[in-house]
């Protein structure tokens, strides 16, 4: 059974601010960071005194600051307090789960501006008005158009939530983050789907379709790796040129701007790539009506790899740039489920058919047991073993008569049908041009040979005889 669930999505809309609006937004973002820093200092003083203030205690401290020292809307100030309390709770949860972390302490120079619905922002005369409080001049922007990514329909302003005005340091531009309510398909069955995450293939999902068939979907990550490789090489090249320039010079500023532009472009492409991976994974989960989502636990795999000498420098770079967490977040939001993590040690070494341990080489798995001979994709083997462990608590063999259906998907569709047809026509035109050029060259060679033969048969030419050779 597949139902529709109410969920929130966030649209990122770039905006261009005029000179006066730009300066007001800049000053407001700076004051927002100052309030955050004051709240962090006050919170650490309270902790040192043995007290543990809550969310509304932080809010009371910030709202007690004189209005001239916090030129922001009262709701914007309250949101700063709530965000700080949420950061503290996240830190405590991570420490409780054995993860390393630190309470908020870093000083900020700028911070996004939040505007609550009905108070911080309003729509009048097809203009979006962002308020900085009573008696202060706010921002008036053209009303942006928000398109629902699920239905491709325009989202009315009545469905918008709390808006954030954010500054992208790499792209050097402002953008509005507008959350909106939408309906998406939700899986509400009792089937289990396992996810084996990796760098080469971001996700491999396995689900029992029936008693004799396991469906496996493997999503290729070649597009994401290409984006990261291009970004790394470009940034490295620019960084090498920066090392030979004087800080503050014109060339230095241009290279810094080029570096930020490259990073911003790569970030947008990678975010879209992660959305595409999560969308195709969610389609597998919803199609099989899964009610439980289990990830192979690879959290923390990138830590201390250099000290343990468990990875080379290229693999360490890939692990540090692995966007596994964001892909999990997108998949949980798309399916409406909270995924759980399960120990996946030896999942790609264990044969799903007989349970023997093998060391796979490359992307294909071949069981070395003479009585088995099982072969499959390596990531599919890992996903199947995680699935069996999620159901039975250990790696239980699936049996020799079980059929495994593997589907390979690209995360990002490179070309549309129109683009592919246009490319085919261009290639055919180039081939015809090359073929005609080769024919013309061969005809010129033949005519030159004929003229040489005629010249040799006529004997040596005198000073007044000229022989033209094409």
Please tell me about this protein's structure:
- This protein is of the alpha+beta class and 470 residues long.
- The protein has 2 domains: 2-187, no CATH class; 193-221 and 269-410.
- It has 9 helices and 15 strands.
- It has helices spanning 19-48, 55-63, 74-96, 222-242, 250-287, 313-320, 324-335, 378-392, 417-458, and strands spanning 2-15, 113-115, 121-124, 127-130, 139-142, 163-168, 173-187, 191-197, 203-210, 213-220, 290-297, 340-343, 364-366, 375-377, 403-410.
- The strands form 4 sheets. A 6-stranded mixed sheet has the order 12-11-8-9-10-15.
- A hairpin with a 4-residue loop joins strand 6 (163-168) and strand 7.
- Helix 1 crosses helix 3.
- Mean pLDDT is 87; it is low at 460-470.
Topology:
Layout: E1 2-15, H1 19-48, H2 55-63, H3 74-96, E2 113-115, E3 121-124, E4 127-130, E5 139-142, E6 163-168, E7 173-187, E8 191-197, E9 203-210, E10 213-220, H4 222-242, H5 250-287, E11 290-297, H6 313-320, H7 324-335, E12 340-343, E13 364-366, E14 375-377, H8 378-392, E15 403-410, H9 417-458
Parallel strand pairs: 8-11, 10-15, 11-12
Antiparallel strand pairs: 1-7, 2-6, 3-4, 4-5, 6-7, 8-9, 9-10, 13-14
Helix pairs in contact: 1-3, 2-3, 4-5, 5-7
Identify the notable features of this structure and list them briefly.
9 helices; alpha+beta; globular; 6-stranded mixed sheet; 15 strands; 4-stranded antiparallel sheet
Task: Offer a quick outline of the entry.
With 470 residues, the chain is of the alpha+beta class. It is built from 9 helices and 15 strands. Strands 12-11-8-9-10-15 form a 6-stranded mixed beta sheet.
């Amino acid at each position: 059974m597949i139902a529709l669930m109410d969920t929130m999505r966030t649209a990122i809309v770039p905006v261009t601010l005029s000179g006066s609006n730009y300066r007001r937004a800049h000053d407001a973002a700076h004051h927002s960071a100052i309030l955050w820093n004051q709240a962090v200092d006050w919170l650490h003083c309270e902790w040192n005194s043995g007290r543990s203030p809550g969310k509304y205690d932080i809010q009371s401290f910030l709202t007690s600051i004189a209005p001239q020292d916090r030129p922001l809307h009262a709701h914007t100030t309250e949101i700063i307090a709530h965000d700080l309390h949420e950061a503290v709770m996240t830190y405590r949860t991570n420490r409780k789960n054995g993860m390393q972390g630190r309470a908020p302490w870093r000083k900020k120079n700028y911070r996004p501006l939040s505007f609550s619905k009905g108070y911080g922002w309003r729509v009048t005369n097809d203009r979006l008005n962002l308020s900085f409080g009573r008696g202060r001049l706010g921002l008036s922007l053209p009303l942006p158009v928000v398109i629902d990514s699920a239905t491709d329909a325009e989202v009315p302003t009545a469905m918008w939530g709390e808006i954030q005005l954010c500054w992208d340091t790499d792209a050097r531009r402002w953008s509005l983050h507008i959350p909106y309510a939408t309906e998406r398909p939700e899986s509400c069955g009792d089937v289990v789907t396992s996810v084996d995450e990796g760098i080469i293939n971001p996700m491999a999902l396995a689900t029992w379709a029936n008693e004799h068939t396991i469906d496996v979907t493997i999503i290729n990550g070649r597009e994401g790796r290409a984006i990261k490789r291009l970004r790394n090489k470009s940034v490295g090249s620019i960084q090498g040129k920066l090392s030979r320039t004087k800080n503050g010079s014109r060339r230095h500023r241009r290279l810094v701007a080029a570096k930020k532009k490259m990073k911003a472009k790569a970030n947008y492409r990678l975010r879209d790539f992660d959305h595409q991976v999560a969308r195709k994974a969610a389609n597998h989960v919803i199609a099989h009506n899964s009610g439980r989502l289990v990830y192979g636990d690879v959290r923390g795999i990138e830590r201390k790899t250099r000290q343990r000498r468990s990875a080379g420098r290229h693999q360490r770079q890939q692990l540090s740039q692995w966007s596994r967490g964001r892909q999990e977040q997108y998949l949980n939001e798309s399916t409406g489920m909270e995924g759980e993590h399960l120990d996946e040690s030896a999942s790609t070494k264990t044969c799903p058919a007989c349970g023997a341990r093998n060391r796979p080489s490359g992307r294909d798995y071949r069981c070395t047991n003479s009585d088995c001979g099982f072969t499959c994709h390596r990531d599919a083997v890992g996903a199947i073993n995680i699935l069996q462990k999620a159901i039975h608590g250990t790696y239980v063999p699936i049996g020799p008569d079980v059929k495994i259906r593997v589907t390979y998907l690209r995360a990002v569709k490179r070309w549309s049908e129109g683009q592919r047809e246009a490319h085919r026509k261009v290639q055919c035109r180039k081939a015809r041009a090359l073929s005609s050029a080769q024919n013309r060259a061969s005809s010129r060679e033949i005519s030159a040979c004929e003229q040489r033969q005629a010249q040799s048969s006529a004997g040596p030419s005198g000073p007044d005889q000229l022989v033209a050779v094409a």
